[in-house]
Amino acid sequence: MTRIPVSLLLVMYSDVIISCAHAQGTMDDLLRLRDTLFQNYTMYFRPVYNLSDPIHVTFDMYLISILDLDEVTGTITLNCVVKISWSDYRLSWNPSNFGDITSFVFNASNVWKPRIYIATSSEDLSDFSYDAYDVRVYSNGSVTSSPSRHVKASCSFDMTNFPKDSQTCSLQIASWAFLASEMLFLIARSEIGMTSYKPNGEWDIDWTSVTDNTYVVPMLDFSMHLTRRSAYFTVSLIIPVLLLCFLNPFVFLLPASSGERISYTITMFLSLAVYMTLIGENIPKVSDPMAGISYFLLLVMFYSCLLILLTIFTLRCEAVTDIRMFPGWFLRIVFRLGFHKSVINTNKVDAAHTVINAQVMGNDKATEWTINSGDEEVQKTVRKEDVMLFIDKSLFYLTFVMIVFICLGFGVYFWL
């Protein structure tokens, strides 16, 4: 059974405490009152004299704590108290005839009570007002019961902006036995009582509301709008993933001769796969809507695959021994972007001609590609090292800009 904080009891029963401060009467008066009230009492019918009149039942909910909010199963577990009040004209008396007794408490199984159910329960639809609870009866016929319990209700989650998401969960209370013309639910106040609420470590409650949703049967909706505290997921999930993303392009700054490039990119890919698995365990297995971070990780996985292919390409280029295997237009681009070495040219030729040649080793493999202009005194040579430097720097800047745009794009679209 749920333990109710003392502060909540003081709020709920402030009127009782005041009346009990002047309580009078004896046990004989109480027993005589009980015998008088229950002499012809029946608990099987609504407490209304005119059967065409509805019975009015007032609800006031107090939230104690949020025990669990499971996005995967789509459930929310609450610890709450519901104060239920109604009027039973058969339980009224004149206090002066019974030792000035104005109210007394006895077991709820002895009186009529409204049977209410949690319509959004994810478990059984058991009666909320258990017979195990007591009720307080006042001399004017008012009856009050305050059953408390753990409520596990279904909740639809929108994980699009996870982990900076907000959710709205509703606890729907209904009475299936009576029509709206036979029982009316009244709202004590337009929001859920938060007097003794214990803050949850993962969720903040922005606002609560209580609305009448009566149609065929009496029904009330107790709604809560919750915002996730994203600090934990930001530190343990978002920041590590971003670091892995920004570390990926640096593979092209590793010397190709070290032999560590391919292992570096595969390690980054597997690390992202692990984080994708961790996120998948914390979000619902639904297709609409999917969490934006799932799309982000999928795109980053494709990006990481691209880097693996580019790394293989650079290793193939590194294995080239004849510079003539690179296209001439590509070597000209390398030359024009300044990736070359310059030496003094002592063999001038006609200024109208440009000599382009390749220095050939003894095994007929060229290691340098040279441009020699007749009106210049400088001979400019593109070596294979220059080509590899150009490829590595170009791929580094290209992939770095790509990941920056990917991260900024998803950050702005999903989380800002």
UniProtKB/TrEMBL annotation:
InterPro entries listed in its UniProt record: Neur_chan_lig-bd, Neur_chan_lig-bd_sf, Neur_channel, Neuro-gated_channel_TM_sf, Neuro_actylchol_rec, Neurotrans-gated_channel_TM, Neurotransmitter_ion_chnl_CS
Transmembrane domains' residue ranges: 231-255, 262-280, 292-315, 395-415
Domain Neurotransmitter-gated ion-channel ligand-binding residues, every copy: 32-229
Keywords: Ion channel, Ion transport, Membrane, Receptor, Signal, Transmembrane, Transmembrane helix, Transport
Signal peptide stretch: 1-23
UniProt-listed PROSITE patterns: NEUROTR_ION_CHANNEL
Gene Ontology terms for molecular function: extracellular ligand-gated monoatomic ion channel activity; transmembrane signaling receptor activity
UniProt subcellular location: Membrane
Bilayer topology term: Multi-pass membrane protein
Residue ranges constituting the Neurotransmitter-gated ion-channel transmembrane domain according to the UniProt record: 237-315
Protein origin, superkingdom: Eukaryota
GO-annotated cellular components: membrane
One Pfam family, short name: Neur_chan_LBD
PANTHER family cross-referenced by the UniProt entry: NEUROTRANSMITTER GATED ION CHANNEL (PTHR18945)
Record family assignment: Belongs to the ligand-gated ion channel (TC 1.A.9) family.
Protein name, as recorded: Neuronal acetylcholine receptor subunit alpha-6
Species this protein is from: Mizuhopecten yessoensis (Japanese scallop)
